Amino acid sequence: RSVRVWMKRDNGQYWPSIYHTMSSPCSCMCVNPETKRLSVGLDNGTVSEFILSEDYNKMTAVKSYQAHQSRVMMVLFVLEMEWLLSIGQDKYFTWHCSESGQRLGSYRISAGACGLQYPFRE
Questions:
Q1: What is the CATH number of the domain that holds 74?
Q2: By its UniProt entry, which PANTHER family does this protein fall under (predicted)?
């Protein structure tokens, strides 16, 4: 039910930097190191987006999407397209625009999925 960020200190030990309680248990997450965007999938089908501060001591909520009817299995943020992709236990693949928050589409898959990858080519 929580998101925790641990930082490696100069002495080599890890210390908690952020502790954030979520509305439902977390099922998956992805971090974009360039934008410091953290996308968290929850058991209730919600995907929540946060921005991590420069020093990783604070996370600010940006958007939440009701992406699925049940557990989110995988989330992926595609910086080049500004898309947030997700698959859920409900057997749907969905994609949202992370700038506008609009749902761009969904596709029902015939079997459950547990992985997601998006190749981007120029």
A1: 2.40.128.630
A2: LD41958P (PTHR46189), WD REPEAT AND FYVE DOMAIN-CONTAINING PROTEIN 2 (PTHR46189:SF3)
